[in-house]
Amino acid sequence: MGRKSVGVTPEGTPVELFTLTNARGTELCVMSYGAIIVSLKVCDRAGNLGDIVLGFDSLKGYLEQSAYIGAVVGRCANRIRKGRFPLDGRTVRLSVNHGPHHLHGGIRGFDKVVWQAEYVGTPGGEGLSLRHLSPDGDEGYPGRLAVEVRYLLTEDDELVVDYDATTDAPTPLNLTQHTYFNLAGRGDILGHKLMIAADGFTPVDASLIPTGEIAPVAGTALDFRTATPIGERIGNPDRQLEYAGGYDHNFVLRRAGPGLGHAARVVEPVTGRTLDVFTTEPGLHFYSGNFLDGSLAGKGNVYRQRSGFTLETQHYPDSPNHPQFPSTILRPGERYGSRTVFAFGVEG
Questions:
Q1: pLDDT bracket for residue 113 (50, 70, 90)
Q2: Is 312 known to be catalytic?
């Protein structure tokens, strides 16, 4: 375990960096600002340790970025149409920060606050608890929300992410982790082979808001039911890809019941690194770094389009406006609980 100061926010709040390691040498660094995963070093098939997440060289880079790199996002991950939704007979209005829409919690979402962080002991590995109290009216959301995110690095090279929250008034809640992965450590991610355990997805309109349908992936460029290189169909003349500039879609996961289910597997053929994702969530949002444009750089890399991908486990986008989607409304007396496991390995 390690803990050090990395600077202060413009408001003067101190920011700390925490390091978790295991016996294999795997190393996870997390910053209290945004609950951001700053680095994650795992071995390739030759035993070489390498950082597999996008990030910056200083706090300044994280303060200035708008790509949510490494952060926990909320209260509601993804998009909410026109920043409003019905709740118990009234219309709730949120801040808008993505054209006319609300994205990833708004102007100052959970990615832009300093969390209260402390190490937690666990027999399964080293852990870190991060807590935040979101006040009533925060970015327009009703209710006072107490939220905790726990990161656990196990001896089996698993990163376990647990989310826990309570509220004193009904509010939508849909938390996720927005780390950009590149299992090769540099270059683009087009050669990574991806499998997503989903037969359907939620189509979007031209502003990337779900239409409310659930459509089959079969026969489309979004069919990742068998392992397929990310770049194989990304340039196909497909309306959904044209809207997003690539992949930026929620997949409806195949689930046999409650508990952890296998959501995705990624293999990077050159290094042999693998990533398996397990989650209790009903959806997985796959984003292929479409809006990275070369204006951001860190760790010796310039982050251009397709430099990294995200696998965001969550409920469906714009769920409060679609009663046919699984509900994201948390009510007083209820407890929000969600778990995602990122399991790393090698093959070949």
A1: very high
A2: yes
